[in-house]
Amino acid sequence: MSSNSRGAWGSRFGFVLAAAGSAVGLGHIWRFPYVTGENGGAAFVILYIACVFLIGVPILFAELSLGRHSHKNPVGAIKAIAPTGGWKYLGYLGVATGLFILSYYTLIAGWTFGYIFKTLLQNPLTFDEFSTNAPLNSLLYVVFLLMSIGVVYGGIRGGIERWSKILMPILPVILLFIIIYTLTLEGAMEGVRFYLRPDFSEITGETIMIALGQAFFANSLGMGAMITYGSYLDKKENIIAAGTTVVIFGIMISFLAGFAIFPAVFAMGKSPAEGAALVFVILPEIFEMMPGGILIGTLFFLLLAIAALTSAISLLEVPVAFLIDERKVRRKVATWLVGGVTLLFGIPSALSFGASDFFTHLPFWAGHSFFDLMDYIFGSVALPLGGMMFSIFVAWRWGMFGASKEVSLGNDKFIGIQSKVWGIILKYICPIVILLVLLNSIEVF
Length: 445
Ligand code: PHE
What we know:
Elements: H1 12-23, H2 26-38, H3 42-70, H4 74-81, H5 88-120, H6 127-131, H7 134-153, H8 156-167, H9 171-183, H10 188-196, H11 205-218, H12 225-230, H13 239-267, H14 278-289, H15 293-327, H16 331-350, H17 357-360, H18 370-408, H19 417-441
Helix pairs in contact: 1-8, 1-13, 1-15, 2-11, 2-13, 3-4, 3-11, 3-13, 3-18, 3-19, 4-5, 5-7, 5-15, 5-16, 5-18, 7-8, 7-15, 7-16, 8-15, 9-13, 9-15, 10-13, 11-18, 11-19, 13-14, 14-15, 15-16, 18-19
The protein binds phenylalanine.
Phenylalanine binds near residues 25, 28, 218, 223 and 314.
């Protein structure tokens, strides 16, 4: 157990669960199915898994080792290695990205919270009626934000770790219940085919960009959440084992989530390309038909809200740790401060689903919503961009010698071939692939 006074994880298991808690959230259960549905199904799934292992995992190890090396937030971690020069702005980018993602993430999380009660009380409100109701959305937003603030307020061991430990393992079980039921529905097999039989002609440059963005978003990479979580990690811990466990748990949850959604989509004759509303439109209908659906549905949205909470707190923790370490602000003050700014930027997102015509159809962004704009800039572009810069920073500025040494502290097999392969990927493959994908998405080619 680390003895530094910033706080530390209570145990190895606690860290893995907390990191899995950060990773596994709306990104897997809400975002993964709808982007898969919009991008052709099985081929996208394969592309996503390739992005996770080729790009995501090496960057995850880089972020964790950078955090543990310095015991600092992203800005402090960078300054510990490069005290002067412009690299610290990469840390600021991470802090800002965390804050902006949190601002719209909280909205969707608030929906899941609302859907707990909607399912339990069998309220007939449709998704459209629900998402255009500004007072209801604001209320749910504030309630969810206050819950996140409450946990982060509690600090490392008392707050984040305890919650993750109790709640994360229940999630796959509840997904299995839903899958077993949906597979019995007539027409479900067509959904299984859509989800598992790849059609590579559907893949475009844009699809690759979205798969890469999803790999970052789902694994909490590219903005320093894993640097911050790594900073509370003890030197004895095995970064490779812990990181791999987190990624595999995440892929499993995503995979199950898709299995819970697509057979149902096809059985009900709906389109898989429904967009951000997919989970909120499809699953409630399933719960209505399913025996014991009220209970299963209530439990599902409860767990999804909790999964979202353990992710939201990691988004919140990045700017908070920055203020504590770099600006010497007290944890409680820092948490309220960041929460307040988040709320400010969250309002336009909350009005993006029909409540305000302006924010629903931004005139300066081809009529897309403010919410879509935020998710595009921060979820799809800023994360891969940050990840690319982190890989360059670790491989070229810190150097593979220092980085590998940090990893090997908790894993004495991490020398020779393992660390060489890691070095090649971080030095060349990550920066080049990400750069190409980013340039391609802004249509440079
Ligand atoms: N990984 C989280 C999810 O899937 C979201 C997240 C992104 C959290 C980036 C932290 C950093 O819901």
